[in-house]
Design brief:
Strand order of the largest sheet: 1-9-8-5-4-2-3
Shape: globular
Bound molecules: pyridoxal-5'-phosphate
Strand content: 5-15%
Number of strands: 13
Low-confidence stretches: none
Order of helices and strands: HHEHEHEHEHEEEEEHHHEEEHHEHH
Number of helices: 13
Mean pLDDT: 97
Distance between the termini: 29 Å
């Protein structure tokens, strides 16, 4: 019997953190409004709540136009269609991200080209992106991952120099700002997700924002079964599908956007407090601080763990120990997509991977991105954002658990436990 909960000791926490998502009377009233007005979505388009929210959400991110869609995956897909990505075009994506960044590229018959991340930010490395450009490259799709931004100061001129479109995957960065400009408003388009874990959620949903009316019109036609957009100044007709967001879902987004600035301040203050106490902890490190991020939007707090400074105890054991102390966190949260079991891509199913190539692109076996692999398999620890909405005394329990695990780290040596084995499994293979 040890001190750590995983070896039989008492856990630091025996009560849960406040659950996510949060809701108030605002959401309840909005839902009732949809119910009683019987305008539940579909036609007439756009719905009252979806339209009002999209406009407000775009403005909050300093963009002129916004469109709600059914998921974040669809948001990326619609953005790729807006910039006219054609079958066989190459799109640069970061290797370390959720598979949902990459799937839409395949869905529009284009070819994802993986680029390693910057080990200081875990976001796409702009210098490596430049090296990955070929005559077939048409777009760059960086992800503002976890709690940092991809280096837009480098990516915007890179895209311009090579005549490429720039689509920001903003699934993690609701409300974030880079040099005073909203996430998603700096590239050609920004794609957001409102899936249940996100900073604003309606269970499932997404949005596309842009400052370009033509792109907006194409997005709107694409997600509304090809109908003319509400403005229709560019008269472009494309085949579209029903990827609209229903009004029940749209209605709960508005109150959350109203609460976001206050939540952002709470998270930010708690994160600063948290980091100030961890600065001297051996075995841990931070992503590089980034003054160009002028409003933070931490989807998760991402800490670095260095096993070599923690008596060679692997991250899986450290993370499992924290979990048993009552702290929600994850190590293998994302994997390099090319290695993930959620990405069993078969070139025969995606003909664009073969067109104009001597042999089909074998996306699972042609990449090695060392920074992504290190982050995914050894270093990164992800703490969900809702922990940082808690009161200080709750944040103190996270710190207490971390120091307890570090102080008793030898108890983890050679330990066998289901929670440790689970950390070795890709999210595709876990039970939950
Ligand atoms: C980085 C990233 N991109 C894209 C997506 C896709 O969003 P959705 O799950 O809403 O389709 C997600 C989230 O789930 C994500 O985290």
């Amino acid at each position: 019997m040890g001190n750590l909960a995983i070896t039989g000791g008492s856990p630091v926490r025996t009560h849960l953190f406040d659950p996510w998502p949060v809701y108030t009377e605002g959401e309840r009233c909005a839902l009732e409004d949809v119910l009683t007005n019987r305008s539940w979505g579909g036609q007439p388009f756009p719905g009252k709540h979806a339209d009002a929210f999209a406009k407000k959400f775009a403005a909050f991110h300093t963009a002129q136009y916004g469109q709600c869609v059914s998921t974040g995956t669809v948001a990326i897909q619609a953005a790729l269609k807006a910039v006219d990505i054609q079958p066989g075009d190459e799109v640069l994506v970061p290797a370390y991200t959720w598979e949902g960044t990459v799937g839409p590229v395949l869905l529009v018959n284009a070819v994802p080209v993986f680029v390693d991340v910057d080990p200081e930010t875990y976001c796409m490395d702009a210098a490596l992106a430049e090296q990955a450009i070929t005559p077939k490259t048409r777009a760059i799709l960086p992800v503002h991952l976890g709690m940092r931004f991809a280096d837009l100061d480098a990516l915007v001129p890179l895209a311009r120099k090579h005549n490429l479109s720039l689509i920001e995957d903003c699934a993690h960065v609701h409300g974030g700002m880079w040099r005073g400009k909203g996430a998603g408003s700096i590239g050609d388009l920004g794609a957001f997700s409102f899936q249940s874990s996100k900073l604003i959620t309606c269970g499932e949903g997404g949005a596309v924002i842009t400052n370009n009316l033509e792109y907006f019109e194409r997005v709107q036609s694409y997600i509304n079964a090809g109908r003319a957009s509400v403005t229709d100044q560019f008269k472009r007709r494309i085949i579209g599908f029903n990827y609209r967001l229903g009004e029940f879902q749209a209605s709960v987004l508005g109150p959350q956007l109203d609460r976001l600035p206050a939540q952002q301040r709470t998270r930010q203050a708690n994160i600063e407090y948290f980091e100030s106490h961890l600065r001297s902890a051996r075995g841990l490190g931070f992503l590089k601080s980034e003054p160009r991020i002028t409003r933070t939007a931490p989807y998760s707090y991402v800490l670095k763990y260095f096993a070599e400074q923690a008596r060679d105890i692997p991250r899986a054991a450290f993370v499992a120990a924290l979990q048993l102390e009552g702290i929600p966190c994850d190590g293998l949260f994302y994997e390099p997509v090319y290695r993930s079991s959620l990405f069993p891509v078969n070139p025969a199913e995606f003909p664009a991977l073969s067109w104009g190539r001597e042999k089909p692109f074998d996306l699972r076996n042609m990449y090695y991105c060392p920074a992504s692999e290190r982050a995914a398999y050894h270093e990164a620890i992800w703490f969900p954002h809702y922990l940082f909405l808690s009161e200080r005394k709750e944040i103190d329990t996270i710190l207490e658990a971390i120091f307890k695990a570090l102080d008793n780290i030898d108890e983890l040596r050679g330990l066998e436990h289901q929670a440790i084995r689970n950390q070795g499994l890709s999210r595709a293979d876990r039970e939950s």
